[in-house]
Design brief:
Shape: globular
Radius of gyration: 20 Å
Oligomer: single chain
Number of strands: 0
Helix content: 55-70%
Order of helices and strands: HHHHHHHHHHHHHHHHHH
Structural class: mainly alpha
Length: 371
């Protein structure tokens, strides 16, 4: 059975033909088209956390989040909708809304808050917590606009910095009056033996930990969603996860629970994916992606020491810091080519410049749609 490229493009990649269909109906006030547009924007906002611009992938990721916790899935939906409404209120571009570019930070605000606030501060998931999620999700849009304007002058995206900013503020505000003691390691743990099968499992769990979700089935669904859009991003995400997880063994102490649960790999995932997304795939970009995963994990280890004192997670600060630094050092060339029209790595590679000159690379202006 022969399948043409047009049919495949309906489901895989970034589903640009769906955008064209929605755009052609953008002037229609029919409730079904409004609902369809909102659904696509919501699912893409969930998927854009891992640089995926595909609503079908977003649906798989959402199912994966529900596998972790019903509240996590609900928080993802509520936070993204709050961000979309705020974006609409403040006249953000419609194509950015539909692509989920104004709401992916809000998705993390919701999932991370629901997963970590009960664990860190022993606060139950209540209506009050969802009120804070909605408020901070809306604020993440405004913070994202401000950071985008600032970093855009240097041709750099804001990544998940809006999420980090508003969620750190929220967590510090929700912190109980007395510092919460960090749980000690079990007394019966007397061996320094590393369980390598659990380390490999931790690299799988890492994908769920991007959303602060600890779930094996959910992580597998998120990997599948990523694969549906881009095999290159999927390969980069696992290499980043494995790199961070292995470094976690070196940087942490027995019994390595945080390694086995995937906590050490999620920044590596985002760091490796970001390079492969913003740079035209090449041998050098692959090497840079690996180095970025290493740097992000080392920053995570360094930040964890200080943030542990105030019982605050590292969030995705390590990924943002390392990636901004490396992208800033490569905008002038270094044999790497920034992508002008951001879609997905396979298309970036096919549309890469055939004749590359150093002066062309230094003058390339990247697409800043993810700001």
């Amino acid at each position: 059975m022969k399948v043409d490229a047009a049919s495949v493009s309906l489901l895989f990649g970034d589903m640009r033909r769906l955008d064209q269909a929605l755009e052609s109906r953008s002037q229609s006030c029919h409730p079904l088209w409004i609902l369809a547009d909102g659904l696509v924007s919501t699912l893409r906002g969930i998927a854009q956390v891992i640089f995926v611009n595909n609503p079908v992938c977003g649906a798989l990721i959402l199912i994966g989040l529900f596998c972790s916790n019903v509240f996590t899935g609900v928080a993802a939906i509520v936070s993204v909708i709050a961000a979309l409404l705020c974006s609409k209120l403040f006249d953000q571009p419609q194509d950015a809304l539909r692509a989920g570019l104004t709401s992916f930070s809000a998705c993390l605000v919701g999932t991370v808050t629901v997963e970590l606030v009960p664990a860190l501060y022993h606060r139950p998931v209540t209506g009050t917590l969802f009120f804070w999620i909605i408020l901070m999700s809306a604020l993440s849009v405004l913070v994202g606009c401000g950071l985008g304007n600032i970093l855009g002058k240097f041709q750099l995206p804001a990544f998940t910095l809006p999420f980090n900013t508003v969620t750190a503020i929220l967590f510090l505000c929700l912190h109980p009056p007395e510092a919460t003691e960090v749980a000690a390691a079990p007394a019966n743990v007397t061996t320094d033996t590393v369980l390598w099968d659990q380390v490999l499992l931790g690299s799988v769990y890492s994908m769920g930990q991007v959303y602060a979700a600890y779930t094996l089935a959910g992580s597998a669904l998120i990997y599948l969603g990523c694969l549906l859009c881009s095999p290159v991003l999927t390969a980069a995400s696992y290499v980043g996860a494995l790199t961070g997880t292995l470094l976690g063994v070196a940087f942490s102490d027995p019994p390595y629970d945080s390694v086995y649960s995937g906590v050490w790999g999620y920044n590596g995932i985002l760091a490796a994916e970001a390079i492969m997304f913003f740079m035209v795939p090449s041998v050098r970009s692959v090497l840079l992606a690996l180095l970025n995963a290493v740097l992000a994990t080392m920053i995570q280890a360094a930040l964890a020491v200080s943030l542990k004192q105030v019982n605050l997670p590292v969030f995705t600060f390590p990924f943002v810091t390392s990636t901004l630094l490396l992208l800033a050092t490569t905008t002038a060339g270094s044999g790497l080519t920034r992508v002008k029209n951001l879609r997905y790595p396979e298309l970036h590679f096919r549309e890469r410049p055939q004749k590359r000159r150093p002066d062309d690379e230094s003058s390339a202006t990247p697409d800043l749609d993810r700001d």
